[in-house]
Amino acid sequence: MDKFIIHGGKKLNGSVRISGAKNAALALMPATLLASGKYEFTNTPDLRDVTSMAKLLQTTGADVVRNAHSLSINTFRVNKFEAPYEHVKKMRASIYVLGPLIARYGYAKVSLPGGCAWGPRPVNLHIEGIRKLGAAVKLESGYIVAKAKRLKAAKIAFDVSSVGATGNVLMAAVLARGTTVVENAAKEPETEALARFLVKMGAKVEGIGTNHLEIEGVDALHPVNEEMIPDRIEAGTFLVAGALAGGKIKVTHCNPLQLTAVLTKLEESGASVKIDGDTIELRAPRNIKPVNVTTAAYPGFPTDMQAQWIALMSLCTGSAVVTDAIYFDRFKHVPEMIRLGADITLNENAAVVQGVKKLKGAKVMSTDLRASASLILAGLVAEGTTEVLRVYHLDRGYEHIEKKLQSIGADIKRVSGQEY
Ligand code: EPZ
Q1: Would you place residue 118 in the very low, low, confident or very high pLDDT band (cuts 50, 70, 90)?
Q2: Longest Cα–Cα distance in the chain
Q3: How far, in Å, CA of 418 to CA of 420, rounded?
Q4: Which residues lie across from 94 on neighbouring strands?
Q5: Which residue has its alpha carbon closest to ligand 1 atom 35?
Q6: Could you tell me if 97 and 121 are in contact, meaning their C-beta atoms sit under 8 angstroms apart?
Q7: Backbone dihedral angles phi then psi of residue 60, each to the nearest 5 degrees
């Protein structure tokens, strides 16, 4: 139960290298179940969630060898087609084994994810999707149990654009008989990376990067190697840190095209942004202008940047409304931000942030990954000392965030093994 101790008020200057994308790794790793053999991944992020996915794949019989930034998976000996509750309760993305297992082995037993820190996150679209592809699915003692001889192509139109459900249907349909059409598919860069990986394995997918996918099933796929795309949310988090703490920072090894919505809002807040290849340079605004944000599916403003945006707006010269249209009650960071002196009023799925002159250090509690990131950002500018407790939430999705922040001038340190 580590915590971070932050002494606020230090401007940030320097360059941060962005890691591989957590949400791409969590989609591509289970896709290896679709064909037996050895896969090599590079630019993989050194994160707790990647460890969790590796452990889950090992329970199916796969061999997984990890180094800090590379991963080798051998699915030759896969013989167990189950995702136990013990794994799924730790990480919802474990549900990504459902599609590949039912498609490849005709059987899958996957625990339902259960509750999430910030409210209902149903998986009905995942279940409906594989049902439409011909699987017999029943819910039994908290598990999704799916069976199918061979999946059959179908026309699937999602009510909501879902990253996870699109990924599971994609991974199921690539081995189905016939051509599946998916409408209102997610087109997040991580979903696109998954589709491109499947095509490299021999799949036939048209419309990649759009809301309309056509997947012509094939009889078999083969193992390949892949480099993970950069993490756009990690890049966005550091850019907002720079805008909030003041100074000039660079994020390198990222894909600026995947951050257009965030960069546009940062410029509206008064920051200056320069793009040069895979590098973004940000110079902090003199005064942070109030900028309203409403989250949306890609390429809209990502919900995974909502909490960080609230931290930035907490010091703006006016008031801003931050609305989450994806997760209506993803605001667990707000009461903690108020403990740091922020002036925020919640109104259903909108936070009205009245800018204050300064924040003041305090003890705050992490609740989930992005909420914790916003508390770190606020701690960087809060007067005095901020203690961010339970930072294991952060280690799930940010690689050594304190070291990266220290490298650009932040006064932050990790204190291990605290009980509180
Ligand atoms: C992915 O989650 C990401 N996780 C999340 O990032 C991210 O917040 C989310 O997409 C939205 O961008 C991973 O990629 C591992 P969804 P996912 O299915 O797939 C509703 C982070 O911080 N929905 O796109 O679970 C759902 O309730 C994490 O890195 C259904 O109604 O999200 C939500 O309102 C947190 N039924 C909307 O769709 C379903 O069956 C989008 O959810 C599935 C989803």
Answers
A1: confident
A2: 64
A3: 6
A4: none
A5: 304
A6: no
A7: -85, -10
Virtual CA dihedral for 66, 186, 399, 235, nearest 10 degrees?
A: 140
Looking at 33-176, list the stretches that DSSP marks H as alpha helix, in order from N- to C-terminal side. 48-60, 85-88, 98-105, 124-132, 163-173
162 C-alpha vs ligand 1 centroid, how far in Å?
A: 6
Contact 14, 249 (CB under 8 A): yes
Catalytic hit among 1, 65, 68, 116: 116
- Ligand 1: centre distance to CA 403 (Å): 29
pLDDT score at 119: 73
C-alpha angle with apex 370: 367 to 374, nearest 5 degrees? Answer: 90
- Global pTM exceeds 0.90: yes
pLDDT at 419 over 70: no
Name the β-bridge partners of 402. Answer: none
Cβ neighbourhood burial of 181 (10 Å; 0-12, 13-18, 19+): middle
Ligand 1 neighbourhood includes 303 CB (under 6 angstroms) = yes
Dump pLDDT digits (tens) for 45-103: 999 999 999 999 999 999 999 999 999 999 999 999 999 999 999 999 999 999 999 99
Rounded Cα distance between 357 and 13, Å, is: 22
Nearest CA to ligand 1 atom 18: 162
Q: Is there a catalytic annotation at residue 116?
A: yes
Pocket of ligand 1 contains residue 52 by CB under 6 Å = no
Q: Are 172 and 146 in contact (CB under 8 A)?
A: no
Q: Which residue type occupies 407?
A: S
Q: Please state the atom number of ligand 1 nearest to the C-alpha of residue 159.
A: 31
DSSP annotation string for 290-334: P--EEB-STTSB-GGGHHHHHHHHTTSSSEEEEE-SSSTT--THH
For ligand 1, say whether the CB of 326 is within 6 Å of any of its atoms: yes
Residue 170: pLDDT band with limits 50, 70, 90: very high
Ramachandran category for residue 234: left, alpha or beta (phi over 0 → left; psi -120 to 50 → alpha): alpha
> Which pair of tokens denotes residue 219?
């009889």
User: What would the pLDDT profile of 348-391 be if each residue is shown by its tens digit?
Assistant: 999 999 999 999 999 999 999 999 999 999 999 999 999 999 99
Give kind and range of the element (H or E) at residue 4: strand 3-7
Residue 124 Cα: closest atom of ligand 1? 40
Which tokens belong to 108? 């899958």
Decide if 133 contacts 100 (C-beta within 8 A).
no
